[in-house]
């Protein structure tokens, strides 16, 4: 940078003097004197000197190049000592270098990381692991499994995992993975037990609780029966046999199925012992038991006493019990059962109870007193139903009855099989009374005017 011209009056600032010692000695007292005279005058002189120093920088573009202090003719002294200061102390900050409008605009345009990850998982793209169950392979995002399954969380980040097929089926794994990635997952009835078994194996507490809640509150009638049969396939029958106790109006539809004939003895006994099963009359329970016993007669013959002990013969009209013992009108399927000594005795006890009940009639208090004297315990009532299409539905006191034989019962089951799958919904609840709904319906039909 060229030296400043001393003849120029604009260069009478502190940066414009030569570096001789004589001039230095003259200037220093002079500067002190100026400072003592007037602070205002000093500020004006400094401002003027700054303006004079900046002019050469604008005139000469090379003036911005750094030069040594000798070239700038900077004089050493107390006034040339610069105190070090940070940009922050000068009023600058990093935040000021970003424009707020541009910053907010760029944030709004950024893709949400969580949504992007969820999208990848739901679309099953860019999977990073594979689960093998038997011969089936399932590409998955390991992160999704680790988020819910404690078993996967405790495992290393393996790219390939083999799971035992006896603990988790391919269908249950697909249902579980769908449950993990969906926002509002719905568990289907089909495969629910498989899901519960697999969720217990994979240690997914939240899914286990959801499955248990569904089974405790959402399964009755046909769904409860189907859940039991699913448990039977999975060899979990002992755990879920109690679901048969939830069958009511669906009982006769179940009796008409092949699955009923394949019931194990314990399951059959639990079913026909339940007071919840819905029947038109107690004799239907006996006929259902006879149907099961005759399915594999040589093998099941030894179970006659155990099965018939669950029949409440005291709820069957006495004339029907007498007819059961007539060999000329009784089918062979029934005859081979009632010929057993224990069964015949149970029938006789039933006849004694029902005739005594009919004898006392409406005097229920006297009848109950008789039961107390004889130490006879009255049988519990069933969940009586009324099927408008059932011809043999009659109460004990009804004088107009249609004899229910094994043949007519099978015929009725054939009719039920031919109806819609929800036919059992049409069966009405019937109170425990002497009112015969079938006879009432016939009376109404006779009183209707002929058009």
From TrEMBL:
It comes from Drosophila suzukii. InterPro entries: BACK, BTB/POZ_dom, DUF4734, SKP1/BTB/POZ_sf. It holds the Pfam family BTB. It comes from the Eukaryota. Residues 223-325 form the BACK domain. This is Kelch-like protein 26. Residues 127-219 form the BTB domain. Residues 15-25 have a biased composition (Polar residues). Residues 1-54 are annotated as: Disordered. Residues 34-46 have a biased composition (Acidic residues). The lineage of its organism: Eukaryota, Metazoa, Ecdysozoa, Arthropoda, Hexapoda.
